[in-house]
Amino acid sequence: MPWATGAGNVSRLWGCAVVREVEQRGLYFEEFEVGTRYRHRPGRTVTEADNVLFTTLTMNTQSLHLDAAFAATQEPFGQRLVNSMFTLATIVGLSVAQLTEGTLVANLGFSEIAFPQPLFIGDTLYASTVVLSKRESASRPGEGIVSLEHVGRNQHDVVVARATRATLVRRQP
Description:
CATH superfamily: Hotdog Thioesterase
Number of strands: 8
Largest sheet: 5 strands, antiparallel
Structural class: alpha+beta
Order of helices and strands: EEEEHHHHEEEE
Number of domains: 1
Strand order of the largest sheet: 4-6-7-8-5
Radius of gyration: 21 Å
Shape: globular
Helix content: 10-25%
């Protein structure tokens, strides 16, 4: 067994003393700094299965997402488009581990969403988030409102999605 507990509850893995333990979590309200950009990695390469599953789970029957033969005849892209709601969900999802894991109370809403360029099957989606503003909640002590701008770019650094989101985040205990 590679794990052993020594004196004073110091865990050892392969004979190395654990001197510090870090648990993955998002940022507390106080840790958000307006104007900071977070680059979320790794990116996510979108597969045909991702697009078909998301599109059918959400009952979106748009042929531009599902029918390769039809989409090939449609200008200006001539191929299937990745469902834009998948793109939005993914750029927000890519931010969770770094920003809101375990510290988010609620999403309060999206005020602006845009898809300036399409995302295609096989593209890799990268996301970044800028902290736009923050304020303490007047009605919920121990929580604050943080506004975020999420931006999704493909592997060519082309912006494919942008969304502004208001979140309710816990303050430090």
